[in-house]
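Researcher: Next entry in the queue.
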Amino acid sequence: MDNRIQKMAQVLINYSTKVKPGDLVVFRGTSPAAQPLMQALTEETLKAGGHPFSYIHLSDEDVIMLRNGSEQQLEAINPMLKLMYETANVIIRIEADESTHATSAFSMDKAKARQRARGGLINIQMVREANLTLRRCTTLFPTRAYAQDADMSLYEYEDFVYGACMLQLDDPVQYWLDLAKEQQHLVDYLNGKKYMHVHGDNIDLTMSIDGRTFVSADGTFNFPDGEFFTGPVENSVNGWVRFTFPLVYQGSMVRGAELVFKDGLITEARAEHNAAFLNAMLDTDAGARRLGEFAIGTNKFIDRFTGQILFDEKIGGTVHMAVGESYAITGGVNKSAVHWDMICDTRTNTEIVVDGEKFFENGKFLV
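Model: Structure for this entry, 367 residues:
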């Protein structure tokens, strides 16, 4: 086994989720390819005194379901996963897809039904994260499918993934602790502020952040990490944004997307490619056309688009926003089966003004 896998497991168990004796710890792998990391996580959990349990999805599970299932079957929530999400102390989700675009050819109605099933688990997760009864971290295990999407060999992609996690360092945990301190300074500045204006070549958005909490993501929510986020006041978002990177969601890709907001609601959604899918997801339910999250990426070691949102949303100097479900921990109240992160490059000709003071310019913080 690559020793970086064991090191990754050590950080996930001892730093990201802080497993304690007696904790019920669930590892959820999106395919059997996740097994090497799940084995290492099991070892580290036992060393920490926790109780490890694994759930591995079938290869091509979504394809089988979408090809053969009715809408009623597709939107049924997996009762085993539901029980895990309701009772576990810790959940580590491992993205390890063996094919990343196999589900893109199915009907929009089926895609929405499948998303409603996922949304049921997301809702449980976000509520429990907010009331501090669940510690959850999402990570990724390198596969050939991800490497191909990133135009890398598998060896290059492994180096990229483990490098973004800082596993090449003697003490990766110290790196994440230092990042946490840096980001907390920015979060402390923002918390208590009321109004934000993001203005640049590809974005002109205003929103209220009054009463909302900014949260620092420093290797505990995702691994790797590097962002801070909030849930804007739901009816306050106005303006437009053009997303400079492709939008990837549930195996489908949208290019050249633009959204227009009026009093919090997305009134126009356009795209150069796959606009039908974009609008279908926005029509999943009443909350899917509102912003549930606004965030700024801070990971300076992630500097390229790879097609995997776990990394792409962390690109230092970019902003991203998620339509749909809010993280309750931020004070957001928007409800949806959808949580779709979309990225805009703000490293040139862009500024963020908070309560009349310039906070961010061209990818750099000014406070």
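Model: The first strand starts at residue 24 and ends at 29.
Researcher: Noted, moving on.
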